[in-house]
Structure formats: structure tokens, C-alpha cells
From TrEMBL:
Keywords: DNA-binding. This is Helix-turn-helix domain-containing protein. Residues 67-105 form the Sin domain. It comes from Halobacillus campisalis. The keyword DNA-binding applies. The lineage of its organism: Bacteria, Bacillati, Bacillota, Bacilli, Bacillales.
């Protein structure tokens, strides 16, 4: 039986269109080790592994381990809520939004 954390890693990786090889490069862990975690052969990864994978997949360690998101205590003003709803309704994916943010960070660094 597959370990739950392995299931989450595999589902997140695939939902982001990321190959196992790409995850290996981003985390510094061997593809074979990642595969063994995803398949449940290895079910007790180190906290270092979990931290690196969570960062590479853009989720919290808590989500990767528990499968739950923590409530954000930062209140969103109405403009942000409307903007997010508009983006969702327009068909913008989370990945596309992440890519935009990454591009914007790059552009800001370039302009400095």
C-alpha cells in the first residue's frame, strides 16, 4: 500500500506538470529515492527531504505531511478577493499565476 505522503507528492508533482527527473533536480535527491517514496516502498522520509520537496512543489511542509492547509491569518481586502475570483473565472490556472509571479519577480530584479 502506498504511503499517504508519497501519494501527495506524486499528485502534486503531476498536477504541476513536473517529471520525477525535474523534481529530483530541484530537490537534489535521486530520482530512484523519490520514486520509492511515491510508490510507498520507502514510507519514512527525512524532514530534510520533506522540506525540499515541499519547497519545490510550492506547498507547506504541513500540507505535504497532513494534507491540510493552515488558515491564513492575514485578512484579504475586497479588491484582492475580487481579483482572485476574476482570475479563477477567466480560466487562469494556479500554475499560470505562479509563472506570472515568477516572471514579475525576474522583471523587478532585472530593473534594479
Amino acid at each position: 500500500m502506498k504511503a499517504v505522503i508519497g501519494d501527495r507528492i506524486q499528485a502534486l508533482r503531476k498536477s504541476r506538470g513536473m517529471s520525477m527527473s525535474e523534481l529530483a533536480v530541484r530537490t537534489g535527491f535521486a530520482k530512484s529515492y523519490i520514486s520509492s517514496i511515491e510508490r510507498g516502498v520507502q514510507s519514512n522520509p527525512s524532514i530534510h527531504f520533506v522540506e525540499e520537496v515541499a519547497e519545490a512543489l510550492g506547498v507547506s511542509v504541513h500540507y505535504l505531511v497532513q494534507g491540510e492547509t493552515k488558515t491564513i491569518d492575514i485578512p484579504l481586502d475586497e479588491d484582492w478577493v475580487e481579483l482572485v475570483v476574476e482570475a479563477m473565472n477567466s480560466g487562469l490556472s494556479k500554475q499560470q499565476f505562479r509563472e506570472y509571479l515568477e516572471f514579475n519577480r525576474w522583471r523587478l530584479r532585472k530593473d534594479e
